[in-house]
Structures are given as C-alpha cells and as structure tokens.
C-alpha cells in the first residue's frame, strides 16, 4: 500500500478537517518513531494516517472503532490492520503486540495533548512549545482531560523510550508539518 492510496482511503471515510489533521499528526509522529527505531517509515506512517479512518463511520459504536475500517477496506496489509485494531484495545479487545502496535497506541493520545498545548501558546504555534511545557501540562490532569495519560506513560514500559524522549520525537515530528496542521 502506498501513502497516496492510504490518503485516498482516509479522505473517502473522514470528512472532519480536525480529525484529518489529527491523523496527519499521528502519521508524522509514527514516522519519527520509525526513524528512531530504524523501522519502515512508510508502513508506520500509513498506520498513523489511517488509525482513525473509521472514526466518523463508527460514531456511537466505540466497540467498532478500529474494526469497521476493515469491513470497508479489504486491501490494507495485516501488520497495519493489527496495529489499527489494537490502538483501541479497550473497546476492540485486540491487544497490541508489536512495537508498531504500541507506538500508535501511545502516540495517539500524545499528539492530541500537544495540539492542546499549542493552542494555549500566545500565537497558537507548535514552534513556541518546549518539552518542559508539554510535560508540565501532561501532569495537569484537568488540562486536555480527553488525552489518556496512562497510554502516554506506557511509552517507557512498552517501547523502552523515556517519556521526555517520546515527547521530543512527537513534538519535532509535528513541527515538521506545522503548515499542514495549521499550528
Ligand atoms: Fe487517534
């Protein structure tokens, strides 16, 4: 599967611009993580790009989020499929197993938190963010409460990446596509 094919699938199923940007942020971060691990950036990037592709179509049925996409699209490779199914393991009961599975599970929540952090900077820019600020906001449980901190912290146990490093990778990866993210 090529990035172009994945982009086409994403836009076929998702219409909300904010969600599409979230998927682009996840793609960028997954690419950064693949680079860190010396893994395949295309495969990891496509996993990030498509991880929420069925979000709108599974609305109201959280147990289908992560599974429905594969009823609609039959040509997505198995490793990407497993990672996407397992990133919502609380609802799908498909457990993450590989490093790529855990990468999308952990970074999904972090990208959302980073966007929320950017939005409270004076000029609403990713370039104004520092690691320390993000870590500080991470510890404020009431800030961007929708971002599941427990999943972010799992980067240490499941991926073997120190939290500060994990935040750095996500932030720098997202800064690389700040224009596309509008931040
Ligand atoms: Fe997501």
Strand content: under 5%
Helix content percent band: 55-70%
How many extended strands? 0
Largest sheet: none
> Low-confidence spans: pLDDT under 50, at least 5 residues?
none
Number of helices: 11
Report the average pLDDT across residues: 96
Which class in CATH terms?
Mainly Alpha
CATH architecture name: Orthogonal Bundle
Query: Number of folding domains?
Result: 1
Q: Any idea of the CATH topology?
A: Hypothetical protein af1432
The helix-and-strand class reads mainly alpha
Query: Which molecules are bound besides the chains?
Result: fe (ii) ion
**Distance between the terminal alpha carbons, to the nearest Å?**
29 Å
Over the alpha carbons, how many angstroms does the gyration radius reach? 15 Å
Short description:
This protein is an all-alpha fold.
Folded structure, characterized:
The chain is mainly α and 183 residues long. The protein has a single domain, classed as Hypothetical protein af1432. Helices cover 65% and strands 0% of the residues. The protein contains 11 helices and no strands. Helix 2 crosses helix 7, helix 2 crosses helix 10 and helix 3 crosses helix 5. The longest helix has 21 residues. Bound molecules: fe (ii) ion. Fe (ii) ion binds next to helix 2.
Which features would summarize this protein structure in a list?
binds fe (ii) ion; mainly alpha; 0% strand
Write the layout of secondary structure elements.
Elements: H1 3-13, H2 17-37, H3 41-50, H4 69-72, H5 78-87, H6 89-92, H7 99-119, H8 131-139, H9 149-159, H10 163-176, H11 178-181
Helix pairs in contact: 1-3, 2-3, 2-7, 2-10, 3-5, 5-7, 7-9, 7-10, 8-10
This protein binds fe (ii) ion.
């Amino acid at each position: 599967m090529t990035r172009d094919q994945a982009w086409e699938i994403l836009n076929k199923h998702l219409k909300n611009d904010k969600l599409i940007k979230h998927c682009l942020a996840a793609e960028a971060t997954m690419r950064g993580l693949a680079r860190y691990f010396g893994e395949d950036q295309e495969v990891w990037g496509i996993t990030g790009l498509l991880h929420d592709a069925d979000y709108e179509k599974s609305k109201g049925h959280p147990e289908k989020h992560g599974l429905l996409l594969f009823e609609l699209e039959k040509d997505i490779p198995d490793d990407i499929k497993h990672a996407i199914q397992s990133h919502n393991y609380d609802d799908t009961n498909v457990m993450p197993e590989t490093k790529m599975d855990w990468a999308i599970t952990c970074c999904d929540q972090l990208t959302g938190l980073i966007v929320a952090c950017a939005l409270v900077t004076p000029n609403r820019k990713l370039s104004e963010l520092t690691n320390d600020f993000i870590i500080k906001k991470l510890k404020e449980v009431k800030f961007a409460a929708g971002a599941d901190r427990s999943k972010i912290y799992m980067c240490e146990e499941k991926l073997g990446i120190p939290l500060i490093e994990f935040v750095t990778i996500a932030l720098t990866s997202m800064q690389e596509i700040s224009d596309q993210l509008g931040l």
